[in-house]
Design a protein that fits this description.
- The complex is a heterodimer of chains A (about 230) and B (about 190).
- Chain A is an all-alpha fold and about 230 residues long.
- Chain A has two domains: about 55 residues; about 140 residues, no CATH class.
- Chain A is built from eight helices and no strands.
- The radius of gyration of chain A is 28 Å and the shape is elongated.
- The N and C termini of chain A lie far apart (about 75 Å).
- Chain B is mainly alpha-helical and about 190 residues long.
- Chain B has a domain of about 90 residues: Rna Polymerase Sigma Factor, Chain: A (Orthogonal Bundle), CATH 1.10.1740.10.
- Chain B is globular, with a radius of gyration of 19 Å.
- Chain B starts with a helix and ends in an 8-residue tail after the last helix.
- Classes of the chains: A mainly alpha (about 230), B mainly alpha (about 190).
- Chains A and B meet through helix 1, helix 3, helix 4, helix 7 and helix 8 of A and helix 2, helix 3, helix 4, helix 6 and helix 7 of B.
Chain lengths: ~230, ~190
């Protein structure tokens, strides 16, 4: 293949999309007129596009006759109901405190939560240490002032897809290496606006994409003498 | 962000269920198109499209409008599709001749035009099966860009915005994606077929 043909063929794809500059377009058209091989390549590309288009149209056939809303509505009704019932860890802890006050539960129960917090912290450190080659790191939440307050999303990760956000917060953008990122993140961590000093750990049963999301507690305010 | 979307999102955040219904209805076809293009299975695509909107609903509170709503939803969609494909790869499927020749069992081949003489119809079905196979073999990145161009009909600049890449990368990625498809389809792309 001639050098010019090689260059032109890289442009043919954009040519069929109508995305070339006038100069590039003129170059391609000159080549297509004078080179049978390039012309054949152009025609193959047109045929392939037509076929792909046809397949996608088949995919979409009947799409207008169905609505996803009914299914979505039923599922979000469940979410709303859970929210309304206060089915959060905050409510759970408040409930546990209340049961403890009434003598209906053991004071050792929080040990489970504490153990989970420690486990997740260790897992996060190991994940960061296990990836020294990463180049797309975001700051790991080493200090409380680097992370979001309860209920907030870290500024640098706002408007990312939820899964991306979780992974960004642990130092890896998911879209950079999705397969590796998946394997390394198997827990879902969340916090809530309970009283100061409590970090809630949750394995989200609804999340199909397990992710680590660091929403740590606000650092307690220091008193006038600087003592927390 | 689109003004209409801004209003809808604001209303959704206030708990307006009807606003969310409108948002779903506005985007369901586009999202479905992406999902079915990515996973190549129409029935599963309905479920997954619902799942996308459920996820949107759950996380809309954290969406601040710094990117377009479509871009944000698109990323959720693609992430869910990649999850799905990854899980599906892990599921062992019994060996089946149809699978060997026509790609995944669940891919629904179009029935073709009954008026066409049988040989042409068979060839057409085989051809469409091959196109499915060539799409199935693409990497997620290549699949995404083909879908954005061929299904969504986005211009290169729009694709660049959605994927957060340069126009040069869009051009090069599309070129390579199409080349990869062509490899599978070589013999079917000659004149007269």
């Amino acid at each position: 293949m001639k050098g010019e043909c090689k260059q032109i063929r890289k442009l043919i794809s954009a040519y069929v999309d109508g995305e070339l500059s006038p100069d590039q377009k003129a170059r391609v058209e000159t080549e297509l007129t004078g080179c049978d091989d390039c012309r054949a390549e152009y025609e193959r590309l047109l045929r392939m596009r037509a076929l792909v288009w046809e397949v996608f149209q088949q995919d979409l056939r009947g799409a207008g006759e169905r609505s996803v809303w009914e299914g979505v509505e039923a599922r979000i009704a469940d979410i709303d109901a859970a929210r309304a019932e206060g089915g959060s860890w905050a409510a759970g802890i408040r409930g546990w405190l209340e049961r403890l006050r009434l003598g209906l539960t053991s004071p050792l129960a929080p040990a489970g939560v504490a153990a989970a917090v420690v486990t997740v912290a260790i897992a996060a450190v190991l994940m960061v240490l296990a990836n020294p080659d990463r180049t797309d790191t975001a700051p790991a939440p080493a200090h409380l002032d680097q992370v979001a307050l309860p209920g907030e999303v870290p500024a640098a990760t706002r408007d990312q897809a939820p899964e991306d956000r979780g992974l960004a917060a642990t130092g890896r953008r998911r879209d950079a290496e999705p397969e590796r990122a998946f394997r390394r993140n198997e827990l879902y961590v969340d916090s809530t606006d309970v009283d100061q000093g409590i970090v809630i750990v949750d394995v989200d049963p609804e999340a199909d994409t397990p992710a680590i999301v660091w929403h740590l507690q606000e650092e307690p305010e220091a008193g006038e003498d600087g003592v927390i | 962000m689109d003004t209409d979307d801004k209003v809808l999102v604001a209303r959704c955040k206030e708990g307006d269920r009807d606003a969310f219904r409108r948002l779903v209805q506005k985007y369901e076809r586009r999202i479905y198109g992406i999902v079915v293009g990515m996973i190549r299975d129409r029935e599963e695509a309905w479920d997954l499209t619902q799942e996308v909107f459920v996820k949107v609903y759950r996380h809309l509170g954290s969406f601040e409008g710094n990117s377009s709503l479509y871009t944000w939803m698109y990323r959720i969609t693609v992430n869910l599709c990649i999850d799905f494909i990854r899980k599906r790869r892990g599921v062992k499927v019994e060996y089946d001749d149809a699978r060997r020749h026509d790609g995944p069992v669940n891919v629904q081949l179009p029935v073709g035009n009954p008026a066409e003489p049988p040989p042409q119809r068979l060839l057409r079905e085989e051809l469409v099966g091959k196109v499915n196979q060539s799409l199935e073999r693409l990497s997620p990145k290549h699949k995404q860009i083909i879908i954005l161009r061929e299904v969504e009909g986005l211009a290169y600049q729009e694709i660049a915005d959605v994927l957060g890449i340069s126009i040069g990368t869009v051009m090069s990625r599309l070129f390579h994606a199409r080349k990869n498809m062509q490899r599978v389809l070589t013999k079917y792309l000659e004149k007269g077929i």
